[in-house]
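cron nightly-structures :: item 1 of 1
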Amino acid sequence: KIQNACDIHGAHVDDICSLNFELGTWYGTSVRKFMEKHGIDPQDVDAICSHGQTVYHIPEGHDGLVRSTLQLGEPAVIAWLTGCRVISDFRSMDMAAGGEGAPLVPYADYLLYRSETSRRVLLNIGGISNVTFLNKGCREEDVIAFDTGPGNMMIDETMRHFFGKEYDSDGKTGRSGKCIEALLEELKGD
């Protein structure tokens, strides 16, 4: 259902609307079961933070489309099912503030790796890769971060398509192949 919701040629607004609440229900039910299993009282929880499931992301406007992003997993449903405050829309707020919609990794990078004496560049290779630049002695508002392009999503899709696996465990499949130098140079030029 998530992959269908991401398909600009196959997705329908009614399916996306329904999936938003279905994911919220799944997230909320999962958290509630976890809290019950571990004896956690909802009043003892400061907040549940939900990034949501990204189904479409437009970091730069084009062809009449504005910069925007869409995450599913309705936070109101999560709050209702758990009885907890829910913090959400991280990606949307980051974009509203002029970012590219990936605020969590750069903030963690800032907290963990800022230095008074060294500049640092950190590369996060997730589904989409992004880089964080921390100048020496930088303040939170000085952090520079942006997407650099596809990361593991292309490898994962290749594994699903050609090998029937969700991902390349320990890189075994990738290491068993042979690099096609001409293709590598063409891809590096894009």
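cron nightly-structures :: done
The first helix runs from residue 2 to 6.
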